[in-house]
Amino acid sequence: MAITRWYKEKKREHFYNEAKRLGYRARSAFKLIQINEKFGIIKKGDVVVDLGCSPGGWCQVALELTGGEGVVVGVDLLPTEPISGVRLMRGDMTTDETVERLLEVVNEKSVQAARPDLLVDCVLSDMSPDISGHYTTDQARSIWLCYRALEFARKVLREEGGFACKVFEGEDFIEFRSELKRWFRHVRPFSPPASRKSSSEIYLVAKGFRAVPLPKAEPKRAAKSENEDEEEEAAPRERFL
Ligand SMILES: C[S@@+](CC[C@H](N)C(=O)[O-])C[C@H]1O[C@@H](n2cnc3c(N)ncnc32)[C@H](O)[C@@H]1O
Hints:
Distance between the termini: 45 Å
Shape: globular
Helix content: 40-55%
Structural class: alpha/beta
Order of helices and strands: HHEHEEHEHEHEEH
Low-confidence stretches: 225-241
Radius of gyration: 20 Å
Number of helices: 7
CATH architecture: 3-Layer(aba) Sandwich
Bound molecules: S-adenosylmethionine
Mean pLDDT: 87
CATH topology: Rossmann fold
Strand order of the largest sheet: 3-2-1-4-5-7-6
């Protein structure tokens, strides 16, 4: 067996055994632990929404990080075994119906926790499409889920709130990252050590949600006439990220 493959399998085995030992439902729990160690997007008492939560590893971690004093809500296409202290629901985040039901649940939970309506501190998305094996298709589906997650986050996040989502690298990645930068003050790509090295997945972690986004950057033009240059000089500069 090649050394790199041997190393990857050992690492996978290590996180799998650790997840079992610590009672996490999925190895992926360590990815959220590592994201939070680096970026501190979840704090005690926070309201957290976890999109694509099944089997529930991230919800378990979010519950620990909020110290049982916050609110954790999870949603997935698939059923998730109950987790005491976490509100779970089943639904497809690409449909308006699920988004509306989720907004109601978050609202109801925020009220119960004596937090203002619909003010969420952090939205997480570990949603993955069904893998077809055709990378371009899978990557496009993954980006589509990221946009849905961002759209939801824009509806519920408090100002300065946080966001993290899984994305497959490739076409449209840069465009999605630019879109995130319009909405958040800080956006960083991060590969948690618990992710497989061979995997093309990466997490985009964002902090400092802006209720009012930056304007969209104008697409660059290939060729310009002299007059166009003059016009551009005179126009106020757009802020490019
Ligand atoms: C990698 S798993 C999440 C693992 C989870 N973070 C954990 O720690 O247990 C990805 C999940 O995304 C869910 N998913 C994919 N598309 C979805 C959608 N449109 N709406 C809701 N969940 C979705 C899948 O059903 C799957 O359970």
